Amino acid sequence: MTARHPEPPTARFPAVPGLAYGGDYNPEQWPVATQIEDVELMQQAGVNLVSVGIFSWAMLEPREGEHDFGWLDAVLDRLHAGGIRVALATATASPPPWLTRHHPEILPELADGTVLGQGGRQAYAVSSPVFRDYALRMTRVMAERYGQHPAVALWHVDNELGCHVPHDYSENAAVAFRRWLEARYGTVEALDAAWGTAFWSQRYDSFDEVLPPRAAPTYANPTQQLDFARFSSDELLTHYRALRDVLREVTPHIPTTTNLMLSTGTKWMDYFSWAGDLDVVANDHYLRARDPEGHVELSFSADLTRGVAGGAPWILMEHSTSAVNWQPRNRTKAPGEMLRNSLAHVARGADAVMFFQWRQSAAGAEKYHSAMLPHAGTDTDVWRNTVALGDALRRLDPVKGSRVRADVALVFDYPAWWGAELDSHPTQDLRYADAVMAWYRQLWHRGVTVDVVPAGADLTGYRLVVVPTLYSVTDDAAERVAAAARSGASVLVTYFSGIVDEHDHVRLGGYPGAFRDLLGVRTEEFWPLDAGERLALDDGTTGGLWSEKTHLTGAEAVRTYAGGALDGLPAVTRHGVGSGAAWYVGTRLDDDAASRLTDALLTEAGVAPTVDALPAGVEVVRRHAAGPVDDAAAAFLFVLNHTAQDVTVPVTGVDLLTGGRAEGEVRVPAHGVAVVQEG
Ligand code: GLA
Fold this sequence. Notes:
Structural class: alpha/beta
Number of domains: 3
Largest sheet: 9 strands, parallel
Shape: globular
Bound molecules: alpha-D-galactopyranose
Oligomer: single chain
CATH superfamily of the largest domain: Glycosidases
Radius of gyration: 26 Å
CATH topology of the largest domain: TIM Barrel
C-alpha cells in the first residue's frame, strides 16, 4: 500500500552543465546519415540532454530473446562524442508484437470487457505477472548493457504510465485488486464496513467475490470506485518501482525518473503519492489550444509539479515547439509563445526544458506533431526558435538550483478530485479542476505566487490557504487546515468540501462536516442550480452551479443570497479563529464576486503581489538562490508578457537574456520575456 505523502524526492538531478535542454530522440526512425546530422544540429541548438529508447523494444528485441543493440550502441557513442547526455529509457513503454501475440493475456481490458489490442502503444496490463516479468527482463538487459555508458545521465522508466490505460479491468487486475484490498482492510468484514455494503445487497462474504467496478446495471458502489482508482494509481506506481529497483540494483549511480502528466487534464494518478519514489520529478505538459488562458493552466501545472517535487528543481520532460496532433484542431504556436511557455516552466522551478520530440517523424501517428526540427528543415521559424531557446537557456545558467517561495498555499488532492466527480451526486456539472482554477486564476492575474500542496501537508508559514472543493478529507488533513487558521493564516474553504471521510461516508450532523467547526457554519441542504442559472448576492454580484441552505454557528455573514428560496441566508462567511480567520463560500462565485473576495483575503492576510502595478496579462515569478530570504542579489524576476503591447514592470538588475541593465523598471516587448537578476 502506498503511503499518501512520503518524503519528497531527494532531487538527484541528472549531471548536465547548466539548465538541461533537449527532447525525445527517436533515431531508429531514421537512416544513419540523418542520425549523424542530428548530433551536429543538436550541438548548434545547444541541446545537452535527450531521451532515447522510449519506444525501442521491438527494435532492440526483434524476436524473443534475440537482441539487436548495434544501432543503439552507435547512437549513444555518437551522442557522447558530441557532448550530449542521455536520459535512457527502459524501452518497455510498448510491448513488441511478438509479445502480445504469444501472450495475449497481458492485454488490458475496459470496464465493458473490450480487450485493447496491439497496434497503437501501451497495450499492456501492469498487473499482468507475465508482462511484468518481460518488462523486468528488458530493464535488466538495458541496465547491464548501458549502465556504464558515459552518455547515460538518467533512467527514464516506461513512459507516461497510465496515459492511455489508467484503469484496467482485466482478470489480472481483478486478482491484484483483491490482493490490494486484503492489504488495505485485512478482513472482508472491514471491507464491507468501509464500502457500506449493507446497501443494495452488496455484502461480500469473501475477497474472492470482489470485482473491479466493471460495467454494471447502475451506479457501482462509490467506495469500490474510489478504491479501484486508488488501487489503479498504486498499481502503476508498483510497476514503476519494480523496474526502478532493478535499475538501482545494477546502476545505483544513475538517478531514475518517469514522466508524469501533472495538469488539470490528468486525473487518475495520485502523483503526490508517487513523489517519494522518483529521484527527480519530471513532467510533460501540453497547452490546450481551445483555452484562451492555456498559459494560466500551464502555470498551474508547473506549480503543481513543484509541489510534487517538494520544492526541488524538476524536469520539464516534454512540451511542444508548436502544434500537437491529438486535439480536435491543432493550433500552431504564435511567435514568442514557445519561448514564453518554456520560460514559464523555468520561472516556476524547472531546471530542464525538453520537448516531444527532437526531429519530426515522417511516418506514424505523430507525424503532424511539431518537433524541435520540423519536416521543412532548418530554414524555418520553428528551428530558429529551437536555436534561440537553447541560447536563452545558456544565458539563464545562474538560475539553476534556485527556488520559488510563496505565501499562498492551494490544497490539491487527487482522491478528493475522484470523489467530487463520482456519479449519483447532487449535480453532474461540478468539475474539480474548474473549482481549483477559479481561485488559482484570480491569484495568477494579481501576480501572486502559489504553492500547490497536497491535503495533509504542513501549512504553517503560509499567510493564505485556499481549499477549493476538498470533497473528501481525512481528520488529519482537516486538522492541518484548522491549525493554519489558528496560527494566523486566512483560510478559504469552498462548497462541497469536508463532506465525506476517506471511505466516502458522509460526516453527519450538517455540512461541511470536517470543516463545520472551523468555519462556524452548518449547512442543512445542498441547492444545486440548473445549467446557466444564476443566483444574486446582496452586493449585486452572482454565483452559479451550486448553493446551500447554510446557518451561522459562530461565523458572520459577509455576503448573503438576495432573492429566491435562500434569500437572506449566508453565501460567504468569515469566522475569526485564533489569530487567523476561516472563510467559507457556499456557491461558485462568478468572476466579479471571486475577484472582490480575493482582494479582501489578500489584504487580510497581508500577501503582496510579486511586483506592484502589474500590467494585465503579464506573468511575474521570482526564483531565489539558496541563502537568506532578503538576499535580493540572488533573486531572479521572470517577466512573461502574454499581451500584444509592450509593458514595463518595476525591477532593478541585469536582464540575463539581453545583458542590458534595468534601472527601476524593465521594458518587455509584446509577447516577450525578461529574466532580471535583481540587484
Ligand atoms: C506524450 C508522450 C509522447 C508523445 C506526446 C505527444 O507526452 O509521452 O510520446 O506521444 O505525448 O504530445
